[in-house]
From TrEMBL:
A Pfam family of this chain: Sigma70_r4_2
Protein name (database record): RNA polymerase subunit sigma-24
MF terms (GO), sorted A to Z: DNA binding; sigma factor activity
GO BP annotations, alphabetical order: DNA-templated transcription initiation
Protein's organism: Sphingomonas panacis
Sequence ranges assigned to domain RNA polymerase sigma factor 70 region 4 type in this UniProt record: 125-176
Amino acid sequence: MERDRTSIHGRLPAVDPLTDRSILLARLARTYERALSRFFQRRVTVQADVPDLVQDVYVRLSRMVDPAAIEKPEHFLFVTAANVLKDRARRDAVRGAGLHDEIDESLAGSEISPDRVLESREAADRLQAVLIELPERTRDVFVLRVLEGLRMADVARAIGISTRAAEKHQAKALARVTEALEDWRHR
């Protein structure tokens, strides 16, 4: 037999604490969602994290035994928001957030494996370091000939040296680059 949902005095419907709690939480969410979003937008660099941070505040609020007992809801919510940021920063520090390379979405679906892409980037970085170490004229010859694809006679003319001198600089640069990349591959 179902019990009548009236108060002891029989006049007013009994209050369902779960419904009241849900109504209170929904009202707080509607009232403070924009303010909490602005709070987080000013304090984080990744704007896509803002909805998650706002949600974390509501999760903490929903775990309270009696959210109706909050005397200053705005103060409580913003102190909670500050604590959410602190906890996120601690968690990111432990996980080493920011120390990892982001996945390049432009390569999604590519036939090239992420390991191969990483290896190529490391090789490019090594090539750049080797080129910086080369004498300026040798570097210029290498860049014009190999990277820009000029003919050797055009390279020599652009730099103002003989074709034979440009060829010697090219040979020197190629030898150094080859040596450096071989050393890098065998590390």
